[in-house]
Design a protein that fits this description.
CATH architecture: 3-Layer(aba) Sandwich
CATH class: Alpha Beta
Helix content: 25-40%
Mean pLDDT: 86
Largest sheet: 8 strands, mixed
Distance between the termini: 23 Å
Number of strands: 10
Length: about 250
């Protein structure tokens, strides 16, 4: 009988796929697990044009909080959608750590380069993972950390669902006479898509395996078995895999 993961680690970068150089550990995750696409909703012009706000908006959407207009609404949404699932956030970007602090999610933050290395250290990450059910780690400011972290956790954490999320430039595909999919709807209502992320995840014993051989946009779009979902659904899907929340769809 297949085992289920108990916790999840999500490594996110605002960079486009390929900008981190060679990532053999991330590629190894893809070969063992499966990939797909996450659709980002178009944000209000005031939010989209705010300097340095794009990355923060990514995090908000990955946390399933798009559409909330205040911190109080975000807190209520987290409780309503994810119940008792414990979430953690590690980042070095001030606007993201401020968001995490406001929501009670931030486990560590840093404004200095030396301290930044400490928050991504193996010891600190393991301690953080042990405290929560899902840990979201923003490595945008330290691109080499993504593959290093994945190298450390790929083999050594059997109960951990390992996830990778990065930006992607994907040519829009025409799908005529097709019903609206979860990648472009929220609660059955169509939404305007701004950008796409690509993602991959793996847990030994529970995740499917597709034909993706490496973490590239072309490979994931062509061979990823997860298709595309709205980023708003992403954390709910992770929570479902951990047994904390019901599946968002049928």
């Amino acid at each position: 009988m297949a085992s289920n993961p108990k916790r999840a680690l999500i490594l996110y970068s605002y960079a486009n796929v390929g900008e981190h150089g060679k990532t053999p550990a991330v590629d190894a995750l893809c070969q063992r697990g499966c990939g797909g696409q996450l659709m980002l909703e178009r944000r209000p012009d005031s939010e989209h044009k705010e300097k340095g706000n794009e990355r923060r908006q990514d995090i908000i959407q990955l946390l399933g909080l798009s559409g909330c207009s205040s911190i109080e609404q975000m807190k209520a949404q987290l409780t309503e959608r994810f119940r008792s699932m414990k979430l953690g956030l590690i980042a070095s970007c001030p606007s993201i750590t401020a968001l995490g602090d406001s929501l009670g999610l931030t486990i560590a933050s840093s404004s200095s380069s030396s301290a930044t290395k400490d928050i991504y250290s193996k010891e600190h990450l393991q301690a953080a993972i042990d405290r929560v059910d899902v840990l979201l780690v923003d490595v945008s400011d330290q691109p080499s950390e993504m593959d290093r972290i994945m190298t450390e956790v790929l083999e050594s954490t059997s109960d951990l669902l390992k996830c990778i999320v990065m930006h992607a430039t994907v040519q829009k595909q025409q799908q005529e006479n097709m019903p609206l999919q979860s990648g472009v709807t929220k609660n059955g209502v169509p939404v305007d898509i701004l950008e796409r992320l690509v993602c991959a995840y793996w847990h030994d014993g529970s995740t499917r395996r597709d034909r993706v051989r490496g973490f590239t946009v072309q490979d994931i779009v062509a061979n990823g078995c997860n298709g595309s979902i709205l980023a708003w659904h992403y954390l709910a899907e992770i929570g479902h895999k951990l047994g904390h929340v019901p599946k968002y769809g049928a």
